[in-house]
Structures are given as C-alpha cells and as structure tokens.
Amino acid sequence: MAKGRKKDPRKKLIAGIGSALVDILLLEKDEFLKASSAQKGGMTLVDSSAFIETMLTKTAAQPSIVPGGSACNTILGVGKLGGPARFIGKRGLDELGKLFEISLKKHNVEPILFESHSPTGRVLSIITPDAQRSMFTFLGASAETKPEEITSKHFQDAALIHLEGYLLFNENLLMAALKAARETSALISLDLASFTVVEAAKGILTDVVKEFVDVVIANEDEARAFTGHTDEDKALSALADLADTAVLKVGKRGSLISHYGKVEKVERMGSGAAIDTTGAGDLWASGFLYGLVNDYPLDACGRLASACGFEVCQVVGASIPDEGWARIRKFL
Length: 332
Description:
- By secondary structure, this protein is an alpha/beta fold.
- Helix content is 38%, strand content 24%.
- It is built from eleven helices and 14 strands.
- It has helices spanning 30-35, 49-57, 70-81, 95-106, 171-182, 195-212, 220-227, 232-240, 280-293, 298-312, 322-331; strands at 13-17, 21-27, 43-45, 64-68, 85-92, 109-116, 121-127, 133-138, 158-164, 187-191, 215-219, 245-249, 255-259, 262-266.
- α3 crosses α9 (280-293).
- It is globular.
C-alpha cells in the first residue's frame, strides 16, 4: 500500500508516462459540437485518424497543431519551470512524431520515446465559446507501448513518477508502469484525466489508487464519478482515504488539498476569463508536483499550481507563452 511513503530529498526529477499525442485545436460553436455527438467536456476514443480528418473537413476554422497528451503536458510544464523532467511514451516514425520529440527537447524534457510504424497519436480538441474542450482521441502509435518495454530503469533518479488517467484504458500497461515505479524510491501520482475515463475504469480504479498511488488529482466531475459524492468535503475525504495526498480542483473557486488529513483551501490565481481550458488540469499538476518535489509548503504548491492553470487558460492550447512563464517565475 502506498500510504506513508516518503520521497528521497536528494532527488528532484519528475518522470511522466503516458500517451505521446499531438493536439489539433479547433475553436467552434456549440452547434458544431452537438453535430459531432461528442459529450461536452468529455473524451471519446476513435479507432482511426480518418474520423478526425473527416471532422476537419466540416469546419471553416483553421486548427492549431501542438504537442499534447495529459502526462506530457504536465512534464512539459515541469521543464519550463526549470525542474528536471523526463517523458516516456511511443511515437510514430512520421513528421508529427518528429515534431513531438523536438518539442520535448525545446522544453528541457528528456525524451524516452519508443517508435512505431503506426501514425503518431492525435487529439481533436473542440473548444466552444464557454472555454470547454471536448476531445476525440486517436491513440495511434501511443497505444502500442508494450508492458514489457517499461522497466524501472526508465524511472531512474526520479523523485516522483506521474501517470495520466488515460492509461486506465490499458490495464496491462498501467500495471506494468505502476509495478516498475514501485521498484524505485519515487512517489507515484495519478491524474484522473476525465470523468469518462473514471466511469470506464471504476472496476479497477479504487484498488489501483489504494495500493500504488501517493498523490491523486481530480476535478469535480472526476471526483463525483469516482467517489459517488456530490458534496466536495465528502468527495475529498473519500479520495484522501486512498492516497496520502488528495487534490480536488473546484474550477474558478480554486482547489482543496488534503495531505495526511490536513486540508488546505487554495484560492484561484488571476481574474481574467478563460479563453480555453485545454491543458488547465495538466499544467495545474505541473506547478503542484514541482512544488511538492522541491519541498514547498502545501499552500504554496497549490498557489503555484493555480498560477500555471490560470496562465494556460488565457491562451488556446496547452502551451503557456513566454510572458506567462515570466509571470509564474515571479511567483517562484
């Protein structure tokens, strides 16, 4: 069981494992989203890139193309904060795969990327005027990572190993990653990623968190789907029963963080309206985990997380521009 594990204070590296995906960001109206049959705010898996290509023929808007994937976004943020960072995943031997790897290096992230002849995975993220994003995901090469490819050597020198909730769709790979991570002295964090993921994985999720996870991160919808509680305090308490550190993000109102039973309430940083929530949770995790491995007080971890989450909501996509990082560094 994960409870009571302590991180090695000599180590600062955060390693992430997840899907190596390229984000295709599309600003569209609610009517376009309804016609796509997407569940607003959710994530739908598609089994070919042709679906995404067909969707793009139905819009006059010009999409933006940037590296993505939940754990990858978090690790990119850690690199931009100046922390040692590593990402493990699988890409295709194509132009999108090259773009993905180059972007990791530009963000000061060490890439450990297995390769496949399948296309690099991609996500069509439809962003509606209320700043909600609804996603169609073609996993492509990213779904071909084999459990036997993941060993503890990939997590060498890590203070913390971060896993995205989307790995719950591949139970064998998830368990291989968790078991390899547990062979190290690193803490393990899990971001639940999407309420649709939680609903699909409820059969194994409780046991996974209870046995392996030191830090569990959820938003309101994910926590409700996982715990069955609509009351925030009860939902946080249920999460905290499973992991030493439990995070409940409550949107514009900030976050609630439970650490060994002590609860911190963190107010939202910034006052501007969100333009796009793509990557908000991922970059929130960047700030929180960076603070955690650098021994910041818990409330400071939460405020740094909030600053990162706020800045990414001021732009389209999950990449904070240099001026946003400059404001975050003032906080540091």
